[in-house]
């Protein structure tokens, strides 16, 4: 799996445990200490015969502005999940939460908690290492330039929309140009 990690923080795993009064599995603590979460471009996790995407892992402090534990805390997500003995670690494009079980009966197992299905959850992996090992990512690769996008849009008959699309393209190009992917190794 590839990740574009968030800003490094010393002992971030320990800080997360203290801040949210949880005891997390060592493999996940090591991941936090090394990556502090991060963006996972076009990443899929396979569980059973199903696949789902992973868009980002949550981090502490300065992240991408969206995927931070502080934001989850502000919106009450951490409190809601802790009542179910789960701790959120990542999200998919649908806004569902990959979470680590803190229940002594299945401690460390990874679940996909569906935010809009009245608390339904699906087991994804027996532990964090399996979760990472069952996940694959695509490399970002070539980022189309403004000129390439304009040419393609015009060729496809949408030349009248180029002006409207330029700010979106600019933001997208800047975003992807700043992502540096690396293999997750624990």
Contiguous runs where pLDDT drops below 50 for at least 5 residues: none
Work out the strand percent: 25-35%
> Rg, please?
18 Å
Mean pLDDT: 94
Number of strands: 9
Order of helices and strands: EHHEEHHEEEEHEHHE
Q: Helical amount among residues, as a percent range?
A: 25-40%
Distance between the termini: 11 Å
Q: What is the helix tally?
A: 7
- Main sheet record: 9 strands, antiparallel
Q: Strands, helices and their partners?
A:
Layout: E1 2-5, H1 12-20, H2 26-35, E2 38-47, E3 50-57, H3 69-74, H4 77-83, E4 86-91, E5 97-101, E6 110-113, E7 121-125, H5 128-133, E8 135-137, H6 146-155, H7 162-177, E9 182-183
Antiparallel strand pairs: 1-2, 1-9, 2-3, 2-8, 3-4, 4-5, 5-6, 6-7
Textual characterization of the structure:
This protein is an alpha+beta fold and 186 residues long. The chain is 34% helix and 25% strand. It is built from 7 helices and 9 strands; from the N terminus they run E-H-H-E-E-H-H-E-E-E-E-H-E-H-H-E. The chain has helices at residues 12-20, 26-35, 69-74, 77-83, 128-133, 146-155, 162-177, and strands spanning 2-5, 38-47, 50-57, 86-91, 97-101, 110-113, 121-125, 135-137, 182-183. Strands 1, 2, 3, 4, 5, 6, 7, 8 and 9 form a 9-stranded antiparallel beta sheet that branches. A hairpin with a 5-residue loop joins strand 4 and strand 5 (97-101). Helix 6 runs antiparallel to helix 7. It is elongated and about 60 Å long. The N and C termini lie close together (11 Å). The relative contact order is 0.17. The model has no long low-confidence stretch (mean pLDDT 94).
């Amino acid at each position: 799996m590839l990740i574009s990690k968030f800003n490094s923080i010393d002992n971030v795993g320990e800080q997360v445990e203290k801040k949210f009064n949880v005891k997390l599995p060592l493999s996940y603590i090591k991941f936090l200490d090394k990556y502090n979460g991060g963006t996972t471009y076009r990443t899929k996790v396979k569980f059973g015969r199903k696949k789902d995407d992973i868009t980002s892992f949550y981090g502490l402090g300065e992240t991408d502005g969206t995927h931070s534990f502080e934001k989850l805390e502000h919106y009450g997500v951490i409190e809601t999940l802790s009542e179910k003995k789960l701790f959120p670690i990542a999200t998919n494009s649908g806004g569902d939460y990959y979470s680590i079980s803190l229940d002594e009966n299945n401690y460390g197992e990874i679940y996909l908690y569906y935010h809009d299905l009245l608390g339904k959850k699906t087991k994804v992996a027996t532990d964090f290492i399996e979760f990472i090992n069952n996940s694959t990512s695509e490399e970002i690769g070539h980022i189309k330039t403004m000129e390439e996008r304009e040419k393609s849009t015009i060729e496809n008959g949408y030349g009248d929309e180029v002006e409207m699309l330029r700010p979106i393209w600019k933001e997208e190009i800047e975003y992807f140009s700043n992502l540096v992917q690396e293999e997750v190794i624990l």
